[in-house]
Design a protein that fits this description.
6 copies of one chain form a homohexamer. Chain A is of the alpha/beta class and about 350 residues long. Chain A has 9 helices and 13 strands. Strand 13 of chain E pairs antiparallel with strand 13 of chain F, so a sheet runs across the interface.
Chain lengths: ~350, ~350, ~350, ~350, ~350, ~350
């Protein structure tokens, strides 16, 4: 008889040590320890958590923001690199699966920063390095988009685990590309966004998308969002009252865990720092699949055929018998084994 | 300067004259008149409205339900046919665009019933005949699935109009196939479903999907659901108290209009008969597209490529110089011109 | 509410006036009158009934049979021609639909005889001229195969009517080509075949195929077979005792009417002359379609696609502005209007 | 001179150890041993034999049947997996070719169960994994349809071997798709169906189809059907007298071996458990082909052209230079080599 | 019972009154009378009989031959015109079908002469005006080729009658274009050709082609060839001994009647003037068709499809609502009725 | 300067080792050696040489002939297969081009035998596998017709080489289809036919057709016919005196080589076993083309357009991404590259 995973998930809602990668990683390892202490087997962190989100794109013009780009570039992390090593060690030490967002420095160009989600197994293996495909609106001033090679679901002892960053959860096709790989547990990582247009309620916008993905796929969805700390406000707004007001707007963050019926398993956390815990029992996904199984009997793959081009896109493709040039693009130096 | 449509939409929540196509069409024309009287330019009706939904599939075993199949087959409508003519005349008379669900009799086989959504222009033209791709769970006992040829968005004076039936709104790929054609106004037609498993809250399940489609696509979404009338309860349950209880379960229907931020424009109507009216102003869709435009700058068509096979699937493909054999499958007699 | 035809069908089991077209047509019109007097609305005659079947192909070698070919060619019928006119008049006079097999003389070549099934409407219209696609074994010595242009189901007041000749009922694809056009009443015309190999029981072979077509398609199947009369024995066998014995072999013919469950509606008639009557009620076909509807929900036209090339195959294709050359092939002069 | 296979076939009529895959496989291996002891070279088992047929779909409504779905899902088998290994070992050990039906768990989705026929060579190779294309009527509540990729005839030392599950034997086109590949020995696997509508005689319905396929194709057809054991009655009906009566209806199963003339080689077995043995001598198929060879001289491939789309239908098609994402759909992990 | 024509055919081997149309027509009417007196129902004359063949093309260079062109142009006939009227009167008077070759003056241009075969019915109707498609070798210096509009078989009381001129009988496709129209009696008209290259035996070349057409089509073939009279030698060669020798070469002409087995019915006539008579019994064509019927059972019109473009080719095609310009090309003024 | 092939051709007139493929191939290889020893570069064998012609179709009725069909099926050859390998080896060893007729067993059906002409290059390559399109009269009882895919002319060092089997040389369109591909050397393979109707002189019938093809196309034509050996008479006639007399009829075979003027290059051989040798000098074909070039200046492709449908006709057309089903029809395993 089939046995399905059942475990506790932790959705972290927290602020980084702004633009300080080492300190943020230290805070993350503490939070991993705390969550593991509460029995969590999966700990999800926000998008761009290490070392924080480039709010200046939303509050000043691009030329004024230019020195901030350099500051972020200098404080970003290499993959692999010491920050990643520290996170892998924490995961291994506590035996938990960790998903966390980082600003990844492009190895091949000083203009390249990626908004990258790392997935680390409970034995400390770096399972996934997913670079956000399209930065959202003002984020285009900072980040370079990734390619299709990282849209992968990972087979873990907690089930088949997939990750998308922020606005990617709006992208119907990106979401389906994960569901189609048999995703069972989805992690959606967001940042607090008090700076969006006024009628944009970030908490609602997160909840709608999390519910939809869970309902459509009959999966559990863990959502983790960052928090705008006073430190961030000081750093970004300084004395500018208008920006301070803007950054103080409520309902800018929501974290929690949603079930396969599209409803939250426990009450989500809005705006405040904290960890939301809930039980994930994959057996709860079987019976709802009878109603809709959009990767099975409830779809029509004779009618719809979604192609995912997983080609890694590098600035140069070297071919030929003796193509031993140094790797031209910022491929992770330790390519993860594809299972 | 671009002028974008702005108009009143009406979402009808009503019960049919059960298994009586002529009477149901008469009721529908009355409701069209009423909605037009309130200024509506678009009137959306529930799925399978003419002449009603096969509840017996959920309340009895298939063999017991077999005579009910014949009853529905005999009372279903032909497309084209007198019922469709009456609906087209009503649309033309009142100058409103109408979307309505019918049980369509397959012209070529006595085993074929389609769950079909008709789209009728304000001049009475039959714009679309969309046959639901996959019947949902117990519905598979009654309906034959359609093919990809009808997944089309229609250019109307109200904007680009798309329609999906019930559980199709769960299908990420079907939804994207409409959005990708530039859909601006979506109609989602449902039936009241008190008979689903106990933990399935149909009102919630409708709201989650309507919100998600509107938010992902930055479109307006009009949702129309049928009602379980006492007449239906008597017909289907008879004296069976358990079935009567089952059919009386609340939160089985929700109708309303949702905006491009994923939130309802006006309060939705739950369970009761009535018409929900709201203003649709397509200009409201422009600015949110800056944040996410999943059919534009916010997608990656180098990475994702969704193929829609629009081949009409007929039991026989006739070729040859004088291939004038009678059309083997029940293709709509008035195919709309492909723009 | 849908009304479906309900009527009496007559399956004629009879011998022709051998190699005398005029006399055989006179016998046929008498039988039409008799069946109409018993209330029949559909009268089915055997294959090659006018003026009989070329048994010599089975009892002598081809060269010895050669003068018999000339004899059959001279006594065959033209379509149109006086024999067809007489049959049309009888159908019109009695208001019955008639299906009958004839030896059709090819208008363009003295080497061409077709094994042709005529379908005549109750108003005397020549609905169909179907030329058997492949003559069976020894029949190849006499008949030329037809083309795909005549594989048509006819819309009549008795339902959608299709016809196949003898061994064509073994051809899975020919059978499906009719079912796919919505066939509801099938006529299978056979000849008595005492001359087949010893282990070939013609009555069984007819029953197996009739049952299968009715069961697969959920249709009614009317089967009509000819009889080997003493006159035929004298003509073909003369004093040859071995051939006389061969022609006297029992279980060489079966006529009757089978229902959509694959079972005979009334007891079939074996070997003897007579008319089998049974009621055909098309409403009986609806419920069985829920189990299997191979032209609807129970097939997969994304997987299987049967193409029928309906090109008329003529020895010469004449084109050009004034292409009024005499019709090169023996097309029926009164082509039925293609609806 | 050509030598054609001649061997003993065994058609098993038996009940599974209901919903217990391991015990059912043990019973199957015992039956393989028994049949091999009687000289059988081919052993055919019923459809869905491991671990049994979902009768609840026919005896209760879908929602009530929902927990049964989960129970079947949990007790189904993976392909490959330990149950398949055990069957392969038994085939290899006894040197017999085995065809057996299983409930296959979809690797990629918890809503996917396939009704799968496994073909295992006498050396233990897994030759074929055929997923039933369309579940029949109430079965649609449980099984997902397969695609065209598995409609294959296998070259074995017993001749060219093809398999269809239950109602697929009604599908004219599915049958022809096997015949067209040169099928010589057909296995038709059924389940006991006492629960069909009253006028549906399952034993007759099996015999008609088996006879037709054998006669049309001039092939041998081995038909194997399951039995409703008291254990199954207890499990499904419990104390419900009506359901107990329903399940006790006679003439619900038939197993046997039919020859190329469409007649059974030995008396078929109706309802009771047992093994039917008969000799299959492929040389018997040559002479009947002179009368009708529907894949040769007796068809018209200029007129009829059957296309089989063998595309595997997966939820996601991954492309690209390093497209090593995890296989998105539950393809068999050990794909048989395509010759 | 079918009755087939049986009659006497006459193949005329004769010389014209060289370059004198009126006298040649007078000679022809005398020969018609003579043949009719011998019971002939069909009288075939040579190619270009009225008023003779342009031998100068073969015996002098083109510039030297130029005045001869004018001479022929002036002595050619108009169709219709007095010479044709005289021939029609003779046919009507004697009740015989006549086929005769003429030099036809192009009505629209003084550079146009056609090598034209006239077919005149026994009632004097001008059935066919066939212009040789391609003049042969040196003939290209004189004649303009015709178009496909005249490649017609005529329904006469003698059977279906076709005609080709000289080298057209070498053209496989031209021959088949007539056979395909059901040709039963073929007329091949030639001229005496002593002027061909030395190894070209004209009598053999005629016999080979006549035999082949008769054998391939199982038709009767009537071949008629002209004779080189002393008058022609004097006119063309004058005192040139070499040319006189050339024109005196034997085996330059052959006339006769061949049967459907490809063999002459009576001994052909070589070189001398005279009339060959033979009986044509179309019933003799039936039995050989069993062996080969290349327009029926012995061809494959799914594989071969011969298209004949019968468009009349005129120097100007006038279109438009009021296209009442004078007929631009030399169409016969009395277009024959197309039956 | 163009150099045209000039070589010796050998037309073999011989009997097979009846119904023994291995022995017949051994005899063929001996004859190849003998012909090569006489300087032949092209060796043509009769139709159906391996392992002989089914005379029983002409001497007994079809049912009596049925066991003979099985006997021929069992002794026929597979293409490719050991017999073909032996022939290829002999061609390669002696450096001669070989054309030979075989009974080819259809790989996909036990009812399929093809009358196949193999063309083997002097390097042993299997250039062509041409299956006779329409079996002639009584042959229809044995052979299945081929399709248009094999009507190909092969470019060899001896010129462009085409092949037709027996009655195909009667088919105007088949002949033109080869000429149109630039055929220069034609091989016509026949069988001795003493069994045709009495007035059918096979030697004449062969000569007429060979002459016609050579004359029309200005090609060389090599004709090879089989011989009725005493062994064949004993096998087919046994003690039946009438059949023995029939098989002894003279003028049943003719072999030889014909030139582009339609006349034999050397005296043909009638009835007796032997090899006819003659020189083929393709340069002799140039000058006659000035008179008639029916694939060039002497045809009118604006008027005539012959279409050849070269589609291979298979019982099943498999499509799809991984359409690696076993080839359904017995396509030759070594398809020649299409130049």
């Amino acid at each position: 008889m089939l046995d399905l995973p059942r475990f506790t998930a932790a959705a972290v809602q927290a602020a980084p040590a702004y633009l300080d990668a080492a300190k943020t990683v230290a805070k993350a390892t503490d939070l991993i320890a705390e969550a593991a202490g509460h029995g969590a087997a999966l700990v999800a962190f926000p998008e761009a958590f290490v070392p924080g989100y480039p709010y200046w794109n939303w509050t000043m013009n691009p030329v004024a923001g230019s020195p901030w780009f350099e500051r972020l570039y200098r404080s970003a992390v290499d993959v692999p690199g010491p920050e990643v090593e520290a996170l892998r060690a924490a995961a291994r030490r506590h035996g938990v699966t960790v998903v966390i967002g980082v600003n990844e420095r492009g190895a091949h160009s000083m203009g390249v920063l990626y908004n990258t989600m790392l997935t680390i197994s409970s034995s400390g293996e770096l399972l996934g390095v997913h670079r956000k495909l399209v930065p959202t609106w003002a984020e285009k001033l900072t980040w370079t988009g990734g390619d299709g090679s990282s849209l992968r679901v990972h087979d873990t002892e907690l089930g088949r685990l997939g990750v998308l960053a922020c606005g990617e959860n709006t992208n119907t096709l990106a979401r389906f590309a994960l569901l189609a790989q048999g995703e069972q547990v989805h992690v959606a990582a967001y940042i607090a966004l008090p700076v969006a247009p006024e009628d944009y309620d970030m908490a609602d916008a997160i909840a709608i998308r999390t519910a939809a993905h869970a309902f459509e796929g009959k999966v559990f969805s863990v959502v983790s969002t960052s928090v705008v700390s006073p430190e961030i406000v000081d750093a970004v707004a300084g004395d500018d009252a208008a920006v301070r007001t803007q950054l103080a707007r409520p309902r800018n963050a929501l974290s929690g865990i949603f079930g396969p019926d599209g409803r939250p398993v426990v009450e989500p956390l809005v705006d405040d720092e904290g960890i939301v815990y809930a039980e994930i029992d994959l057996a709860r996904c079987i019976q709802p699949k009878q109603m809709h199984d959009i990767i099975g009997h409830y779809n029509r793959f004779d009618v719809f055929s979604l192609h995912l081009d997983a080609t890694p896109r590098t600035p140069l493709v070297v071919t030929g018998r003796d193509a031993e040039l140094p790797a031209p693009a910022g491929e992770p130096a330790e390519p993860e084994p594809r299972s």
